[in-house]
Amino acid sequence: MALSYGAHPLMTRPPISTASAAVRSVDVLRRGESAATRDEVAVELPLEVRLNGYPFSVIMRTPGQDGDLALGFLFAEGVVRRRDDVVRIDVDEATGVTNVVFARGRDERVADALDQRRQVAMNASCGLCGRRSLETLALEAPPCRAEWSVSSAMVGALPNLLRSAQSAFAQTGGLHAAGLFDVDGRLEASAEDVGRHNAVDKLLGRMLDAGRLPLASSLLFVSGRSSFEIVQKAWMGGIPFVAAVSAPSSLAVDLAGEAGMTLLGFVRDGRFNIYAHPERVAAG
Do 124 and 174 reside in the same domain of the chain? Predict the structure, then answer.
């Protein structure tokens, strides 16, 4: 079935994906048992992203919110810079092809993007595959200037709040999640995927389509670790605060420092480490 996202945010958007699209039952033989039983695994399938009909990239992802994923991915790649760059997004669920149709006057940008990025199949852990040079990793964005802060208690509550929205993870244990929270700790939006960066792209695409960027009053919380690409995507989205269940990488720490972004790791059991810009975490 082909779906089209119209020029008006959210008006023709399909419903947010359910766990049924992200989960599949398979036969499994457990140790010590002679008969197979059924178990649920996370779905991973290819999504081909096209620009004006031309193949651009193949992303291994969990189906659902494919239009958001494509839009967020292209925003993070610098191909889409604002909502009116795109006329519509055509999602064909049957073939796994998503075609992003650009507005008139954007042909040169599309041609440049197709030329700069070689065609690769990106796996679920590959956020930067296909770049031709180190120079393409550079990001021109102003540093985060948000002057608000949150309490340590609120930060400690983030893992359970995000877990409550991870319906597919509860069934499979095999999906990452990303959640956007406001400064009072309320969950604004969440996404699940086999790839951490895919989940973040789904959120960025959804917020871009809704006219919400930059997200200067939001926190990003992710399962797993914080890598360079997670921090880079957050910076592009104007998010001044990133926290994760696991550790950050060295490049993530360096980039967060440069971006003026607060970066937390090992947020679990009421504890956490602050790796950059601790001024946004208040005591209590």
Answer: no
Q: What is the CATH number of the domain that holds 19?
A: 3.10.20.10
**260 contact partners, CB below 8 Å, separation of at least 6:** 143, 144, 145, 240, 277
The answer to whether residues 196 and 111 belong to one domain is no
CA angle 88, 213, 5 (to 5 degrees): 15
Residue 10 DSSP symbol: T
Residues known to be catalytic: 126
Q: Are 56 and 49 in contact (CB under 8 A)?
A: yes
Higher pLDDT among residues 163 and 13, named by residue:
163
Strand partners, 218: 182
Specify the pTM. 0.86
Q: ∠ at Cα 153 (148, 157), nearest 5°?
A: 105
Residues 122 and 213 in one domain: no
Q: How confident is the model at residue 125 (pLDDT cuts 50, 70, 90)?
A: low
> What tens digit of pLDDT does each residue of 168-194 get?
554 555 688 999 999 999 999 999 998
